[in-house]
Amino acid sequence: MKVAIMQPYFLPYIGYFQLIGAVDVFVVYDNIKYTKKGWINRNRFLLDGRDELFSLPLRKGSDALEVRERDLAPDFDRAKLLNRLVEAYRRAPCFGEVVPLLQRIIARSGDNLFDFIHASLLDVCAWLDIGTPLLVSSTLDVDHGLQGQDRVLAICHHLGADTYVNSTGGRDLYSHEHFAARGIELRFLQSRPCDYPQFGRPFVPWLSILDVMMFNTRESISRTLLGRYDLA
CA-to-CA distance for 197 and 200, rounded, in angstroms? Predict the structure, then answer.
């Protein structure tokens, strides 16, 4: 059984969803430290032919807080974020199909950061017809005091995995020998280029999954783009 474990990200790039689709069980970390200036609560979208950041503003909190302990800012203007994205993609070919999903994601009630992001991941997976179960790390009966690859291995053994798959960006974090010694095969997912037309301008790669959905039908994403990766 293949397992992947990742931090939660808000509307991440297509490689994240390729990873979800490539495994049998996907675990989302909620009980890890929130990383400032990372990609947990922000991503990039297309604006006038260039990449632009969008983000979920957070309530001020200690740097030691875990992701599940962080909250959205009280003054988070959901309508403003939605309008910003809507205006950027209004002329996209799949806008009419995608915007109801985007409205539902952004309008979700509640202020917990993890719950908000986790719900958005479930919504996008359902929209893309990705059936992989998404488990929450804190609900698993493992030693959550473990760190790094030892924590990953504990989760893999708890779930009965024989293969752990990570994105290629994690190559420096894990040792093939360390995993093999514990009976787990370590593999890395490398996304292939996923170019598609973007308003007739030069292609801007690796934007939020929102960009992919705005310019490609559900069928073409599921049939073609989600499979554009290699497992090394």
Answer: 6
Neighbour-count burial for 61-98, b at 16+ CB within 10 Å, e otherwise: eeeeeebbbbbbeeebeeeebbeebeebbeebebeeeb
Query: Which of 229, 207, 165, 196 is CA-nearest to residue 18?
Result: 229
Q: How many CB atoms are located within 10 Å of the residue 148 CB?
A: 10
Q: Which of 131, 98, 104 is nearest to 119 (CA)?
A: 104
Write out the DSSP string of 159-212. HT-SEEEEEGGGTTT--HHHHHHTT-EEEEEEEPP----BTTB----S-BHHHH
Domain boundaries, the chain: 2-231
What are 3-61's pLDDT values in tens digits?
999 999 999 999 999 999 999 999 999 999 998 888 999 999 999 999 999 999 999 99
Q: Measured between alpha carbons, how far is 226 from 17 in angstroms, rounded to an integer?
A: 7
Question: If we measure between CA atoms, which residue out of 24, 53, 18 comes closest to residue 164?
Answer: 24
Q: Please compute Rg for the chain using Cα positions.
A: 18
Which tokens in the block code for residue 24? 């049998």
Query: Hey, is 94 helix, strand or coil?
Result: coil
Task: Specify whether the CB–CB gap between 165 and 3 falls below 8 A.
Answer: yes
Strand positions, DSSP E, the chain: 2-6, 25-28, 42-47, 50-55, 134-136, 163-167, 185-191, 229-231
